[in-house]
Amino acid sequence: MIHFLLRRLGLMVVILFLVSIIVFSLVHLTPGDPARMILGQEATEEALHALREKMGLNDPLHIQYLNWVGDVIQGDLGNSLKDNTPVLTVLLQKLPVTIQLSIMSFTIAMLIAIPAGIISATRKGTPWDYFGTTFALSGVSIPPFFLGILLIFVFAISFGWFAPSGYVEPWVDFKKSMMLMILPALSVGVRLSAEITRMLRSSMLEVLQADYIRTAYAKGVLEKGVVIGHALKNALIPVVTVSGLQLATFLGGAVITETIFAVPGLGRLVVDAILTRDFPVVQGAVLFMAIAVVITNFLIDILYSVLDPRIKLTGGQS
Amino acid sequence: MEATTNQVELKVESPKKKMMKEMFGRFFQNKLAVIGGIFTLLLVFMAIFAPVIAPYDPTEQDYAKFLQGPSEENVMGTDELGRDILSRVIYGARVSIQAGLISVGIALLVGIPVGLFSGYYRGVLDEYVVMRFTDALLSFPPLVLALSLAAVLGAGLQNAMIAIGIIFTPNFIRLMRAEVLSQREREYVTAAKASGISDFKIMFVHIFPNCLPPILVQATLAIAAAIISEASLSYLGLGTQPPTASWGAMLSMGQGYLADAPWISLFPGLFIFLTVLSINLFGDGLRDALDPKLK
């Protein structure tokens, strides 16, 4: 186990190093002058010179990288060009909003996917299965922004049940906060549920063929007991772990959803920063999201190796 | 007594031909996949012949007709500048299909050779550079990386396609490498090596064709995902720029008029959904036909 952990930890460090190079390259290695890219074509020579000095753009590239990584390790992601606020402070302000969206989206996704996946697998080839698989394929095919707009059109404009956009912190007004977050969470959750339904269906179909399921039936256990008590428990192991790996997809979906519903989270922050050319914020937010994904993947690898000891025996090698 | 001999004509079909026949048979049995394929073909046809099919110029503004609902004259209504939505949807198919094909083309162009070399030679370069680099690229939320790249490269369809191509590349590198790893242990590769054929020829002439089926399926599904990505970038203002008609940008423009003129957003949205759904159905059918065990 220690060998496995050390190997995984080593890989994580290498990946984080490469992630940092990619994020650094986003601004520094692309054609053109980063200062001009940040300030725009109309910027004066003085403004460009001042920004180059401030960002250390006159230093050799490797020195610029080392300075940047050194600052990042100390938690200094630079300051926003908009109001000079430290990028980390801005990120930490927006993080709870995206966490609330992710908790609600994952809850909705699981509430839809678990029954849909079970019914699809246990009633394979019936209209229920076709309904489940069609839902899953449609959910994967619908663009997140179209789903968001459809939800606003149906539930906010036509029925008037929810507000089309806005955000209130849950500790200020819990009920209002939940009501405002339901449509964005549905928009992300339905897509996630479609992916999980597909995964759970195939995982359940595989488990239902296993010998111990046949034994359970032979012992006279009722179908409900076999499916919930025996099959689902094992079918969920890959599903839960792979759901965690959906974090990158989720964060991408959050960018669009938060923009459509005017939810002031990390995704909306990235879009606003890109459109206003606030590159320190873009760099910081992208790095922050990538680190979150790398750490989540590492934790899932560990969790998976605990749940499925066969992974440990191969040393986690693919 | 006259002896009769029954002459039996033996038709020997080559295994390759038989396999293809079986594959097509399996594909055409899957009705949903066939419907998906037909719809996709119709869209390609619509995109190619857009100037002939579209009833109006997609950029022509007519302020006397702004925000008009669907009618005989304008089947899908008009937008806030009086432009015909149907014509813009038809021309929008050009952008979407072009973006899907070119960005996946870029990903294939880079991903296939890198995956092929990496899987064939393995070693430190494969394990610690190529694989870890793909791990690092896959750690970024795809849309966020595409957005950042598009922002750095500059807004526009061409840069959006490059950005989308870059985010899809690691998937193809990994898939190609995995296929090569399983193929390189096969007997035909050992035989080719023993007969002195160069590594380059073994990789591209012998191994590559055997890796094609899963790459083909993945490429089809990636085209669907690339269409969504381009529409997302255009929705956020970093893809196709006005006045060119693009489904994502049309949705974004129409969002402000959702209460009074929902058709501006709903029709292009519906077309993106149907396009992606049909390509996914076609791709799923192709996968099941090529490898029925995966079903």
Summarize the structure.
The complex is a heterodimer of chains A (318) and B (295). Chain A is an all-alpha fold.
Distance between the termini of chain A: 16 Å
Tell me, briefly, the overall form of chain A: globular
Helix/sheet category of chain A: mainly alpha
Number of domains of chain A: 2
Q: Helix and strand succession of chain B?
A: HHHHHHHHHHH
Number of helices of chain A: 14
- Please name the CATH topology of the largest domain in chain A: MetI-like fold
From the spread of the alpha carbons, the general shape of chain B counts as globular
Termini separation of chain B comes to 59 Å
Structural class of chain B: mainly alpha
CATH architecture classification name of chain B: Orthogonal Bundle
Q: What does the main sheet of chain A amount to?
A: none
Q: H/E element string of chain A? A: HHHHHHHHHHHHHH
Largest interface: A-B, 49 and 46 residues
Low-confidence stretches of chain A: none
Q: What does the model show?
A:
The complex is a heterodimer of chains A (318) and B (295). By secondary structure, chain A is mainly α. In chain A, helix 8 runs antiparallel to helix 11 (247-260). Chain A has two domains: 2-73, no CATH class; 88-307, MetI-like fold. Chain A has 14 helices and no strands. Helices cover 77% and strands 0% of the residues of chain A. Chain A is globular. The model of chain A has no long low-confidence stretch (mean pLDDT 84). Chain B is mainly α and 295 residues long. Chain B has a single domain (23-294), classed as MetI-like (MetI-like fold), CATH 1.10.3720. Chain B is built from eleven helices and no strands. Chain B has helices at 15-29, 31-48, 50-53, 85-121, 123-138, 142-153, 157-183, 187-194, 199-235, 247-255, 263-290. In chain B, helix 2 (31-48) packs across helix 11 (263-290). Chain B is globular. Chains A and B meet through helix 1, helix 6, helix 7, helix 11 and helix 12 of A and helix 5, helix 6, helix 9, helix 10 and helix 11 of B.
